[in-house]
Specification:
GT106_glycosyltransferase, alpha/beta, Trefoil (Acidic Fibroblast Growth Factor, subunit A), signal, glycosyltransferase activity, glycosidase, about 35% helix, single chain, 8-stranded parallel beta barrel
Length: about 1100
């Protein structure tokens, strides 16, 4: 009973704490508790370069930097991190002092000793967290930005960090990084958002993978930390989200998702900006609207965070000077959330240069003062909220002047351009109509050239927006021509002058020597009522979460910048001094949020959790007693809730190799039998033959000669060799002699081509591509000479040879000898170094020409039907390709669980089969450990069972096992069969008589397994190899709606080898990792074969 009461109290407390700062409502970011709009006005602070240390810590105390940020009008910091910093031990365990030593940053070390001595013994990850906490103390919100994979400067097309599957952008590692950071900052009240990735780019970028990985990343972050906003960037350096118009990104957190974009002046020369300012501004604004800003408009708008923009703040880059006014006009009009690049005045180390100055930085080189106060002043208009969708105040318009960043005000008898907080309010202006003051009969009237306009009850002046920018406000002047509003620079007064860079017809001049921005004006909608913008002044519920975070990271004060908080900060000069300043409700150091939290809880538990002050002063020990009682209640609640959860889960026992695991039985989710993201793809097969001559290949009317190959290995290695042989015949314009299927030491099978494949279909289907004959021509009498005579055999073909190699080295010999054998012929043709039409030909051979004999196809269909009806009803089934034959285990040279006798027998077998490689076996131990760590060892049946259970597949799952004789027999299979008793092979599905016809050839039995796996609802591979590769490729080519699971064996090895990992963590790791390993088409990359992923060039968009 006591546990139940404690649990009830605990759950009541949790319900009070459930709210978290920010969410979204339509296109706005809002305070989750009140629903009021929150505007992000951020500055970027990098921590992602090689040292992985927040820039500037060697120049100033972090607490001082945080105060400078607040004093500059920002309420938020976009704080960067690199993936490897959180995923790789050699990075995350690096201490600040070690990082400085690594890059010989001795001067920076000296600076840190002076300014932030306590951070030297922190790891770089601990420093990252400490900086975030310090920002929170200064009431600054934080957006964590995954800026790059490998720490370093960003960005370029070929830096290896641009897109998924780039050398330093492993999708799995990226996902793990997101999960790690989301967990690390769970409960931190300063962290309001996480950006999934900065500036996706490069030759490998594509929309298909974008949808796939962004969806996974968004859900990973949200599942781990549901409090934060999930911020999604687009393609082309975060400059393009236009594809969302035709296909929205669905299945992401609906009220937590924000899109982000970047907008810079890059790519347009300064002289062009200077000569055609209006035209360029109009053009880039339209492009940015089409690619990014459209998201804030229409019937279904979304929040857009302009997370990077900026200029050279020395003022000597004219392109930047012209572009920034253009950008500010758009940002002010839409009232966007934004983050300026950048805060830092210098870098510890950037691209090999130590202490490099950053001229785009808000702070100067020494981080002492603002580099360009006038530029910072330009931002004041966009730093506060202008449009509050919940405001009850009437809507009006401000006349914004982008060049100055100020707004039009009426001050006594003058119209001036000044701070926007006191801007005059205007009614909505209809083009070619009067501009009227709100609540007044007065209008803005045009004057003669170079005189001030006037405000009076004369509303005869008709104003219109002119030029391609729509930023010039013009009206007919006294002389009959048009005059534009302009800010007079010396005194900031508004005057009317002849329109700059605009002709008498109000169209932009082709070129112009003037800067028209002095005349730019933008009517910006507002209902702002001088309410200060949001900072971390939390509601009672947030304060509870903040208290929870404070207690979770040790004896740290709340982020309120009180005296006690400053003293407890590692960045305070008094960090080591003992402070015990009293703090009561009336003290100036107590923040409003602390009082509201206190009063809120006191209303629930009067005189219990928070005794009144008089009682506290007279009985100080009662506070301590209350705290002890509260701790006891929470402890009891944790125990009871844990017990309750375990009972509700109704766990059953999972056993693996004698180890008992608690495996919660979870309800089977529908996605188990579906490829969850297949609906978002739009690819179809398109490997059909293209008419015309293939460039760079010989074009002759008659054959160059004959080529002949032996296709070695198992069925699927032979299949690949046949596809390559057809391709080489096409390259050489040669006649292909039907390949011979040659046995090897593992498969030990001698099967003819016609025993497996339909020869007539094969020859007929390819007749328009390559001439194929069944046998060696009769005129060649010495058939034994083939493959035995050096004169008739080409033996020097390198692996993955380009097409040109065959033209230069093989073709002359074929022409000379008329018939040549190619040996060896395993993987002797490349993929990205041959014409695309040749790759399409290989796809046609693989997916269309190589058709199994009808009796094999029919038997496979019968097996599939029996699998689907094993329960009496039509049920889905899984096909498991279990690669654990004795030959594969031996060849892998990996170490596996087993008795000493088993290991000794395996050593004898390896020594016999591979004597040169094995020797005595002792030198292979380190290699075996490394291979297992890297995921290059076959999964054991027991490991497969635990993995499938972690994915959620229930005990009742119907599983078809495609494998040879499993090494270790039934003992090795026992863990898998115990966890999945509905495990069958073709021998159990078919009678002996039915299979006898196929037992003549091992490859016939392999063909049955191939077809059943191909048609299964879910296919699971357990090790590499041609069988699994071809199955996954075939399923992708034929529609990719069926799930194909490719396990991350490195993760499995690491997790199963961790004695301290709990089942829940293991389940989370398995599910998280395999969300993107379900068999969708993927963009190929160099040296990646087309058999597993035929997307390029054998598939195209529907």
């Amino acid at each position: 009973m006591g546990k139940t009461i404690a649990a009830f109290v605990f759950l009541q407390i949790i319900s009070i704490c459930s709210s978290w700062p920010l969410s979204t409502n339509s296109r706005w970011i809002v305070d989750d508790a009140s629903g009021q709009r929150v505007k992000l006005a951020c500055v970027n602070w990098p921590s992602h370069l090689e040292p992985m240390i927040a820039e500037g810590v060697e120049k100033k105390p972090v607490s001082e930097i945080a105060r400078k940020i607040t004093a500059s009008g920002f309420n938020c910091v976009r704080f960067t991190w690199a993936t490897h910093m959180f995923t790789r031990p050699e990075y995350r365990n690096l201490k600040v002092s070690e990082s400085l030593d690594k890059y010989n940053l001795s001067a920076a070390r000296d600076g840190i000793v002076r300014n932030n001595p306590h951070i030297l013994n922190m790891t770089v990850v601990e420093l990252h967290k400490a900086v975030v906490d310090e920002l929170g103390r200064n009431k600054l919100m934080v957006v964590l930005d995954n800026h790059i994979g490998r720490p370093g400067w960003c960005c370029s097309d070929n830096d290896g960090n641009g897109f998924f599957n780039d050398p330093d952008f492993n999708p799995w590692e990226w996902e793990r990084g997101l999960v790690t950071v989301a967990k690390a900052y769970l409960g931190n009240p300063a962290v309001v958002g996480m950006s999934l990735r900065n500036e996706l780019r490069g030759s490998r970028q594509n929309e298909l993978n974008w949808y796939q990985y962004m969806r996974v990343g968004a859900n990973l972050v949200h599942n781990q930390n549901p409090d934060v906003l999930v911020i999604v960037s687009g393609l082309s350096y975060a400059g393009n989200l236009a594809f969302l118009k035709s296909q929205p990104l669905d299945h992401i957190p609906s009220n937590k998702s924000v899109y982000e974009g970047h907008w810079y002046s890059f790519g347009i020369p300064a002289d062009k900006w200077a000569a055609q300012t209006n035209q360029i501004c109009a053009s880039v604004t339209k492009a940015t609207t089409d690619n990014l800003l459209f998201l804030t408009q229409g019937d279904n708008p979304f929040p857009l965070f302009l997370s990077e923009f900026g200029i050279n703040q020395r003022g000597d880059n004219e392109a930047d000077n012209r572009y920034i006014g253009c950008l500010l006009a758009a940002v002010a009009e839409l009232d966007l959330d934004w983050a300026l690049w950048a805060l830092q005045g210098s870098y510890l180390l950037r691209e090999g240069t130590v202490n490099l100055e950053e001229f785009d930085g808000v702070l100067d080189f020494n981080w002492d003062r603002i580099r360009n106060p006038s530029f910072l002043d330009k931002l004041q208009a966009i730093q506060h909220i202008n449009q509050d969708f919940k405001s009850e105040h009437p809507t009006y318009y401000k006349m914004f002047h982008p060049l100055s960043g100020h707004c039009v005000q009426i001050v006594e008898n003058w119209i001036v351009v000044a701070n926007c907080k006191n801007a005059s309010k205007w009614e909505q202006h209809q083009d070619d109509g009067p501009i009227k003051l709100v609540g007044s009969p007065q209008c803005l009237g045009v004057a003669v050239d170079e005189e001030a306009p006037r405000v009076s009850e004369d509303c005869s002046s008709k104003w219109k927006y002119v030029s391609s920018t729509g930023l010039h406000l013009a009206a007919h002047g006294g002389n009959g021509g048009y005059l534009c509003l302009e800010m007079n620079a010396p005194d900031s007064k508004l005057i009317t002058k002849k329109c700059l860079c605009v002709g008498d017809n109000l169209v932009d001049l082709p070129t112009c020597a003037h800067n028209p921005q002095a005349q730019w004006a933008k009517a910006c909608r507002s209902n702002w009522s001088n309410i200060p913008n949001f900072k971390l002044a939390f509601s009672p519920k947030r304060a509870t979460a903040e208290l929870r975070h404070s207690s979770s990271i040790g004896n740290r004060a709340t982020p309120s910048p009180s005296a006690s908080a400053v003293a407890s900060s590692p960045f305070s000069s008094d960090y080591n001094s003992a402070t015990s300043a009293a703090d009561d409700d009336n003290g100036r150091d107590r923040h409003l949020r602390d009082r509201s939290f206190r009063s809120y809880f006191q209303s629930l538990f009067p005189h219990f959790l928070f005794p009144n002050d008089d009682l506290h002063r007279s009985h100080p020990h009662r506070s301590k007693i209350s705290i002890v009682i509260l701790v006891a209640i929470v402890f009891a609640a944790v125990i009871s809730v844990s017990s309750l959860v375990q009972r509700l889960n109704a766990p059953y026992l999972c056993k693996k190799d004698g180890i008992t695991l608690q495996c919660p039985h979870v309800k089977e989710p529908p996605s188990l039998w579906e490829n969850p993201h297949s609906a978002t793809t739009s690819w179809k097969p398109c490997a059909e033959r293209r008419e015309g001559v293939i460039s760079d290949l010989p074009s002759e009317n008659s054959t160059s000669g004959y080529i002949f190959i032996h296709a070695e290995g198992g069925l699927n290695q032979q299949r690949i060799a046949i596809c390559n042989a057809v391709a080489v015949a096409k390259i050489l314009n040669a006649t292909l002699i039907l390949p011979v299927l040659k046995q090897d030491q593992i498969w030990k099978d001698q099967t003819k081509f016609e025993d497996i494949f339909d020869v007539d279909h094969f020859i007929d289907y390819l007749k328009d591509d390559v001439t194929i004959v069944r046998d060696i021509p009769e005129w060649f009498t010495d058939k034994a000479e083939l493959f035995s005579s050096i004169r008739r055999t080409v033996k020097n073909i390198p692996k993955y040879a380009p097409a040109q190699f065959y033209i230069d080295n093989v073709l002359p010999r074929v022409k000379e000898k008329k018939i040549m054998a190619l040996k060896p012929f395993v993987d002797r043709l490349g993929y990205d170094n041959v014409p695309q039409e040749i790759n399409r030909l290989r796809c046609r051979v693989n997916y269309h020409a190589l058709k199994f004999l009808p009796e094999i196809e029919n038997m496979a269909d019968l097996l599939v039907s029996r699998m689907r009806n094993r329960t009496g009803n039509s049920n889905p089934f899984m096909a498991l390709h279990l690669r654990f034959e004795k030959g594969m285990v031996g060849l892998s040279f990996c170490d596996f669980v087993g008795t000493r006798i088993e290991k000794a027998l395996m050593a004898i077998y390896r020594l016999k089969e591979w004597p040169r490689r094995f020797k005595d076996g002792s030198h292979l131990w380190a290699l075996a450990l490394q291979k297992r760590k890297e995921g290059r060892c076959p999964l054991e049946p027991g490991e497969v069972a635990v993995m499938l259970r972690a994915m959620g597949y229930p005990k009742e799952t119907q599983i078809y096992v495609a494998s040879g004789q499993v090494y270790g027999g039934q003992n090795r299979m026992a863990p898998l069969r115990n966890m999945f008793p509905n495990l069958v092979t073709k021998e159990e599905l078919a009678t002996k008589l039915e299979l006898d016809e196929f037992r003549k050839h091992v490859t016939s039995l392999a063909a049955l397994d191939f077809l059943v796996c191909l048609k299964s609802d879910v296919f699971v591979m357990t090790h590499g190899g041609n069988f699994a590769k071809l199955i996954i490729g075939n399923r992708r080519y034929l529609g990719h709606h069926l799930k194909s699971i490719k396990p991350d064996k490195g993760l499995m090895s690491k997790s199963l080898g961790d004695p301290y990992m709990g089942w829940a963590t293991f389940v989370e790791d398995v599910i998280t990792t395999h969300q993107t390993r379900s068999g969708l088409p993927e963009e190929t990359f160099p040296n990646y074969d087309i058999w597993e992923n035929p997307l390029t060039p054998c598939m195209c968009r529907t």
